[in-house]
């Protein structure tokens, strides 16, 4: 393939779409080309969970940054360099850095499967859109111990109900608390960003809840996409988007 075509935004969008169709994204999502031109080109690909000031300062000019989270969700009425996300957009424009996001489409095609199989080591599972389900042969506390070990967590936020079972497990990466109301015949639900009243609903439904954290579940985006692109002849540099939260 000619280098000019290989480094064309439109051509790469087609490749990304074949890996994880953008048509699968939720109606509220904004996956796809966020900043740039389909007729544009790039010299280097970077992949990261999030667009941040620190990462944009690291990236070379005339590059492409592919992230999981879109920098723009809601329509912008102003582009003011002192406000978020305008400040990041202005910096990207100055350096001619183009932005692509692969969000809910990637959740449905890759993220849940990768976390379940490659991180937790669960080989037998099913996935329907966001929701992964598998069977667990031990108790709730051993599942918590596995998650702490695999995700390298010092602490884990949980709610444990009176349900003696922990066999039917569901998992959604990112923020999955809104799915609690839709869960049936599930003993334990693993996700991130569970809100207080979502936890109360889970307890009412007798579902154990494990909140691993949003960042903790999705920090693997770079390594997943980089591997996929490598198999297609592209070199992508993985950048570490740091967790905005710290624990004291």
- By CATH, the topology of the largest domain is Udp-n-acetylmuramoylalanyl-d-glutamate--2,6- Diaminopimelate Ligase, Chain: A, domain 1
- Poorly predicted parts: none
Q: In the CATH hierarchy, what is the superfamily of the largest domain? A: NIF3 (NGG1p interacting factor 3)-like
Helical amount: 25-40%
Shape: elongated
- The CATH class label of the largest domain is Alpha Beta
User: What share of the residues does DSSP label as strand, in percent?
Assistant: 15-25%
With helices defined by DSSP (H or I, 4 residues minimum), what is the helix count?
9
Order of helices and strands: HHEEHEHEHEEHEEEHEHHE
How many strands? 11
Classify the secondary structure makeup into a structural class: alpha/beta
Strand count, sense and barrel status of the largest sheet are: 6 strands, mixed
Structure description:
The structure is a single chain. By secondary structure, the protein is an alpha/beta fold. The chain has 2 domains: 9-102, Udp-n-acetylmuramoylalanyl-d-glutamate--2,6- Diaminopimelate Ligase, Chain: A, domain 1; 107-214, NIF3 (NGG1p interacting factor 3)-like (Udp-n-acetylmuramoylalanyl-d-glutamate--2,6- Diaminopimelate Ligase, Chain: A, domain 1). It is 33% helix and 19% strand. The strands form 2 sheets. A 6-stranded mixed beta sheet has the order 5-6-8-9-10-7. A 5-stranded mixed beta sheet has the order 1-4-3-2-11. The longest helix is centred in the middle third of the chain and has 16 residues, at 104-119. The protein is elongated. It starts with a helix and ends in a 10-residue tail after the last strand. 34% of the residues are buried. The model has no long low-confidence stretch (mean pLDDT 96).
């Amino acid at each position: 393939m000619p280098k000019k075509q290989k480094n064309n935004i439109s051509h790469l969008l087609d490749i990304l779409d074949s890996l994880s169709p953008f048509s699968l994204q939720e109606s509220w999502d904004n996956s796809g080309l966020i900043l740039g031109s389909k007729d544009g080109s790039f010299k280097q690909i970077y992949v990261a969970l999030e667009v941040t000031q620190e990462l944009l300062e690291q990236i070379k000019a005339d590059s492409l940054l592919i992230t999981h989270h879109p920098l723009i969700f809601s329509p912008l009425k102003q582009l003011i360099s002192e406000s978020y996300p305008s400040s990041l957009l202005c910096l990207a424009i100055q350096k001619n850095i183009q932005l692509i996001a692969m969000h809910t489409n990637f959740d449905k095609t890759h993220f849940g499967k990768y976390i379940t199989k490659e991180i937790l080591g669960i080989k037998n599972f099913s996935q329907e859109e966001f929701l992964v389900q598998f069977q667990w042969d031990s108790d709730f506390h051993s599942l918590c111990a596995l998650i702490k070990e695999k995700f390298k967590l010092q602490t884990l936020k949980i709610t444990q109900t009176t349900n003696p079972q922990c066999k039917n497990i569901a998992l959604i990466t990112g923020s999955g608390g809104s799915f609690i109301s839709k869960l049936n015949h599930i003993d334990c639900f693993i996700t991130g960003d569970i809100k207080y009243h979502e936890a109360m609903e889970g307890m009412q439904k007798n579902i154990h809840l494990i909140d691993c954290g949003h960042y903790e579940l999705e920090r693997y985006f770079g390594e997943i996409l980089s591997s996929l692109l490598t198999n297609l002849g592209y070199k992508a540099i993985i950048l570490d988007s740091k967790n905005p939260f710290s624990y004291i």
